[in-house]
Amino acid sequence: MISNIMGVSGVEHIGIAVRELDQAIRLYEKILGVKCYKQEIVPEQKVRTAFFMAGNTKIELLESTDPEGPIGKFIEKRGEGIHHIAFLVKDIDEQLTYYEGEGIGLIDKKPRKGAEGLDIAFLHPKSTNGALIEVCDEKKE
Amino acid sequence: MISNIMGVSGVEHIGIAVRELDQAIRLYEKILGVKCYKQEIVPEQKVRTAFFMAGNTKIELLESTDPEGPIGKFIEKRGEGIHHIAFLVKDIDEQLTYYEGEGIGLIDKKPRKGAEGLDIAFLHPKSTNGALIEVCDEKKE
Searching chain A, which residue's CA lies closest to the CA of residue B17? Predict the structure, then answer.
């Protein structure tokens, strides 16, 4: 049985690592049938990003601006492809405390700023069967 | 400009490849804060699956029942992790025709049955920047 459940509210976005953002934007506009609604540079993450709405869920394309950044390293090791799932949570500080109590490893023990001004944190893929999982606070800054 | 747009309606599910389904179910019940609502064996795909609701989006864990199946090969090559994104489409036959017309490669040129009785097809990851993308028809059988 689960005690003290801290549930996620939904999928905020799915991140896909790509080598060339402009090419990928043109392609995903065809695949999803919608226009890219925003591009953003996130210097802390060394990425250039582009966002789409797939129904109610965001798709985020990520191009590395630095081979030593997390997306650059991911592509070098595994190639292009799905990079992470981001879940919405009601209170990110409480959620991270809950995960630590459940023995789930965290890359970010404290929230930091992600794209679109959200407070985010990544769980450690060794604790999540290899899936890179981000949690995003529902409250915008 | 995009012509003859065939848009997806949303994300139907996200698939995660795991080595041991029972262990992964216990873990994802903690991560997502909800109970697994269904398990299903899909012999055609050589997988045992478990489903969760993350808000309105399904998360599907996939354990291979055969090392030669697609999930078995994926894990051998890349390890556990996020395997595919499934998008809902209004009419899968029309959607596949549209993708072919746009030069997007298909693994399945015709729909086949997936989990939960949906008509599904996979796009070729060489045509989607390495992301394995499934499309699911909105109409249940």
Answer: A129
The verdict on residue A81 lying in a domain is yes
Chain B residues whose beta carbon lies within 8 Å of the beta carbon of residue A104: 27, 30-31
What is the C-alpha to C-alpha distance for residues B62 and A134, in angstroms, rounded to an integer? 20
- CB contact under 8 Å between B2 and A33, yes or no, is yes
Distance, in Å, from the CA atom of B125 to the CA atom of B72, rounded to the nearest integer, reads 17
Structural domain including A13 reads: 8-137
Q: Rounded distance, CA B34 to CA B19, Å?
A: 21
The structure tokens 């995003």 sit at A136
Number of domains observed in the structure of chain B: 1
Residue B57 belongs to a domain: yes
Which residues in chain B (31-90) have CB-CB distances under 8 A to chain A? 31-35, 54-57, 61, 78-85, 87-88
Q: Do B30 and A80 touch (CB under 8 A)?
A: no
User: Rounded to a whole number, what is the distance in Å from the CA of B76 to chain A's nearest CA?
Assistant: 13
* Residues of chain B above pLDDT 90, percent: 85
B12: in domain? yes
Model pLDDT for residues B72-92, shown as the tens digit of each residue: 999 999 999 999 999 999 999
Look-up of token digits 């990079």: A83
- Please give the structure tokens belonging to residue B123: 């796009």
pLDDT at residue A115, rounded to an integer? 80
CATH number for position B25: 3.10.180.10
Does some domain include residue A73?
A: yes
Whole-model pTM? 0.94
